[in-house]
Backbone:
């Protein structure tokens, strides 16, 4: 594949240790083709070697990315290109794996082990255990590391499909048959994880992609680890909850830890959104968390008219407010769908 002229010229300038000249060449090309992923990658490579903080700030401002991590090299391997999302406990980035020459997704875990009875070593042990979990419906945790006292990262396969949340935003709810196919694929991944005592904790439509031949869960096991870190802290932040409350079971606001019935409930909330276009109790704003918790104790709303009665029965079991009334395992939920469809 032929290398575009501006990129070739910029690389020649970098080889001659003229990073500012390389930046100017690429910025001119960027202004002509803003958002070009190849140009973003080359600009990040320039940012990696810029010695002046002011020049780095100018670069970030020109491309519309104020994140100070842009162009940073992590563990002498992962070049940060763009922040994808940020939530309590995590920052997620699109990166280039310079060692393998391919994109990846990097999850930075906040140093929640500070002021905690847990440690950075505990986090690394949990991540290495997740590396051993392999399932076709789960993004593989390829690498993890702790290059600094306040930094832990997990490198996962990049999204290679369309986020479910984007599909719903663009096209609305899924047809029932397709929604059930997706939920069964998610439950199969959960069943495999539960066999190894690995629980997800917070399934959500913006962390699962639809891809050719199936689905892929992008963050398996990371939420459960973050929740445990938060609960072990000696200092807590009022009103902040890791994860997305819209998909959590009601017991998340108590001493319970993620479990098989917990994950079944979370999968039920996701199934409800696949079918109706929204989670069963909506999505709360941070300031609405207390009222949302009270709302979650109310009976499960029906999915709506025009659908077979069995779907409310199955989702009612998955979403039961009392954990003991739910399907107790992901395999039980799978069987519940199969019995209803037979």
Residues:
């Amino acid at each position: 594949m032929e290398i575009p002229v501006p990129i070739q010229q910029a690389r020649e300038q970098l080889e001659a240790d003229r990073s500012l000249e390389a930046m100017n060449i690429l910025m001119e090309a960027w202004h002509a083709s803003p958002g070009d992923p190849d140009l973003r990658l080359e600009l990040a490579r320039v940012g990696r070697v810029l010695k002046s903080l002011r020049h780095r700030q100018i670069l970030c401002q020109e491309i519309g990315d104020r994140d100070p991590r842009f162009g940073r090299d992590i563990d002498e391997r992962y070049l940060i290109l763009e922040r994808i999302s940020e939530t309590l406990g995590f920052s997620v980035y699109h990166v280039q794996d310079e060692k393998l020459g391919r994109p990846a997704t990097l999850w930075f875990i906040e140093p929640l082990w500070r002021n905690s009875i847990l440690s950075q070593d505990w986090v690394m042990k949990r991540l290495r255990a997740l590396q051993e979990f392999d399932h076709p419906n789960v993004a593989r945790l390829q690498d993890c590391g702790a290059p600094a006292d306040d930094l832990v990262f997990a490198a996962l396969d990049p999204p290679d499909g369309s986020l479910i949340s984007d599909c719903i935003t663009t096209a609305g709810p899924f047809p029932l048959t397709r929604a059930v196919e997706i939920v069964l694929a998610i439950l199969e991944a959960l069943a495999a994880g539960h066999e190894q005592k690995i629980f997800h904790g917070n399934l959500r439509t913006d962390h699962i992609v639809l891809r050719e031949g199936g689905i892929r869960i992008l963050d398996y096991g990371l939420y459960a680890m973050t929740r445990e870190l938060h609960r072990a802290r000696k200092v807590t932040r009022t009103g902040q909850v890791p994860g997305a409350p819209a998909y959590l079971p009601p017991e998340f606001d108590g001493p319970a830890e993620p479990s098989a019935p917990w994950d079944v409930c979370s999968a039920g909330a996701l199934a409800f959104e696949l079918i109706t276009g929204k989670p069963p109790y909506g999505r709360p704003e941070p300031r609405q968390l207390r009222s949302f918790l009270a709302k979650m104790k109310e009976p499960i709303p029906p999915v709506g008219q025009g659908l077979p009665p069995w779907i409310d029965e199955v989702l009612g079991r998955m979403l039961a407010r009392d954990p003991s009334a739910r399907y107790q395992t992901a395999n039980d939920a799978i069987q519940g769908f199969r019995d209803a469809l037979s």
Remarks:
- Residues 176-195 form the longest helix (20 residues).
- The first strand starts at residue 73 and ends at 74.
- The chain has a mean pLDDT of 88.
- Strands lie at 73-74, 78-87, 90-97, 102-109, 141-148, 151-156, 162-163, 208-211, 214-217.
